[in-house]
Amino acid sequence: MSSEPPPGSGQPPPEDDPFRKQPPPAGGSGSPYGDQPPYGSQPPPPHGGGGDPYGGGGYPTDPLAGMPPLADSGKRTLARIIDMILVGVVVWLLTWGFGVTEYDVDTDQVEYSKSFVQSLVAAVLFIGYDTFMIAKTGQTLGKKLLNMRVANLDNGATPSVQTSLIRAAVLWIPFAFCCACIWTAIAGGWSFFDKPYKQGLHDKSAKTVVVSTGT
């Protein structure tokens, strides 16, 4: 039996992890100046001078080096819609089976308590779905269909259960209380404007990125 931890366990990814960042090709960057910067270039800033928004050190290697290209934000949105439809069907079946509907209208009263219960069930299922799927393979069904996956920003590996839970909780907990679709749109839509990593707010909280699988 292998002693190597499975992907997503929170341990450093094994050497044969297919999602591990690949080292740069031998021979360096191919600069005609060798190890010296070209004439007129500025020397790198001192240690701690930036580059990594998460405080990873000085003038460092690009965190995306050796990783697949970042996924298109439009495709990410479509994948999220697919996942919401799939999980939404399960939510509707569960709440319908237990007699919980979005709202019930009496002669002069609308009962919103059932609406909250339905939203709470939806948030729990979405969190569980996202956490399980991302920690297992880095892909929800929507992301798998559109050829993309979630990766740790620091090493490119499949996120751990803890990281996946943080990511899912930031995205879906507000779904149960207020502004359900609005918050989901803001958190996910943030990737359209974020630079340089195209992260949603949930990605920033978990330090993850979404990359193309290239297949």
TrEMBL record:
<dbReference type="InterPro" id="IPR051791">
    <property type="entry name" value="Pra-immunoreactive"/>
</dbReference>
<feature type="compositionally biased region" description="Gly residues">
    <location>
        <begin position="48"/>
        <end position="59"/>
    </location>
</feature>
<keyword id="KW-1133">Transmembrane helix</keyword>
<dbReference type="GO" id="GO:0005886">
    <property type="term" value="C:plasma membrane"/>
</dbReference>
<keyword id="KW-0812">Transmembrane</keyword>
<feature type="compositionally biased region" description="Pro residues">
    <location>
        <begin position="1"/>
        <end position="13"/>
    </location>
</feature>
<feature type="transmembrane region" description="Helical">
    <location>
        <begin position="169"/>
        <end position="193"/>
    </location>
</feature>
<keyword id="KW-1003">Cell membrane</keyword>
<protein>
    <submittedName>
        <fullName>RDD family protein</fullName>
    </submittedName>
</protein>
<feature type="transmembrane region" description="Helical">
    <location>
        <begin position="77"/>
        <end position="96"/>
    </location>
</feature>
<feature type="domain" description="RDD">
    <location>
        <begin position="71"/>
        <end position="206"/>
    </location>
</feature>
<feature type="transmembrane region" description="Helical">
    <location>
        <begin position="116"/>
        <end position="135"/>
    </location>
</feature>
<feature type="region of interest" description="Disordered">
    <location>
        <begin position="1"/>
        <end position="68"/>
    </location>
</feature>
<dbReference type="Pfam" id="PF06271">
    <property type="entry name" value="RDD"/>
</dbReference>
<dbReference type="InterPro" id="IPR010432">
    <property type="entry name" value="RDD"/>
</dbReference>
<keyword id="KW-0472">Membrane</keyword>
